[in-house]
Every structure is written in C-alpha cells, then in structure tokens.
Amino acid sequence: MSDVIELRGLRVRALCGVLPEEKGRLQPFEFNIDVHSDLVSAAASDDLSDTVDYGSLCAVGSGIADNEQFDLLERFAGRVAEALLEEGPVDAVTVVVHKLRPPLPEDLASGGARIHRTS
After folding, report:
1. 3-state SS string over the chain?
2. For the segment 64-91, what is each residue's pLDDT rounded down to a tens digit?
C-alpha cells in the first residue's frame, strides 16, 4: 500500500520514564505518525467518510498520553500504534515518539523510538 496519511508534530505532555522524577512530572513529547490506508475512494469522492479522519487519529494519541503511564518510549509508541490500528480502515502504522527534554547530563535535543505495526 503506497497511500499514507502523515501527521507531524503532535505535541503532548505525558508521564513516561524510569527515573523517579519522571514518574510524577508531565514531560513534553512529540509524535510523527504515518497511517497506511487505501485512499483511492477518498481521492475520488472528496468525502471524509471515505478516509481515516486525522482529527480522530490525533485524539487517540492525545488520549493515551492523558490517561496512561509508561516506563519506556518503546511501549508508549507501541501502545499508540496498537490503538491506531483499531481505528480502521488502517493497513499499517508507523509511530515515532520523541521525548523533547530527556533528563540527561549531555546536551541531547530529544530521544525517540520508531514502531511500525501492521494489521
């Protein structure tokens, strides 16, 4: 499938990390999401009901950030990928999550994980 809906720069605040200070403090994260789906009908009809609504996709990621907690970025990205696959009609998703201010002594702009899942 070569059709992809791209979502870039979805910013959320969430609890994700293994350090004690990360478990009780919301931190900024940024998601980039690719949703692979057949967009032939939507391209012909110009009708929202023929595609995957990217507003609802964003709401899925935001809802997980608001209501769940993770130790690892890998699990955070994986959980979002699992939920997006359930949104249907989705053939595959790629979810990239970046922790925008990782608590490290080095000057690291972000750390991230990329997860690709298929239905």
Report:
1. CCCEEEEEEEEEEEEECCCHHHHCCCEEEEEEEEEECCCHHHHHHCCHHHCCCHHHHHHHHHHHHHHCEECCHHHHHHHHHHHHHHCCCCCEEEEEEEECCCCCCCCCCCEEEEEEEEC
2. 999 999 999 999 999 999 999 998 789 9
The question of whether 99 is a catalytic residue gets the answer yes
Q: Which residues contact 105 (CB under 8 A, 6 or more apart)?
A: none
107 vs 1, 37, 39, 40, 72, CA distance in Å?
39, 38, 41, 45, 20
Residue of 99, 103, 112, 115 marked catalytic: 99
Domains annotated for the chain, with CATH where assigned, are 4-118 (3.30.1130.10)
CA atoms within 13 A on the CB side of 31: 31
Predicted TM-score (pTM) of the model is: 0.91
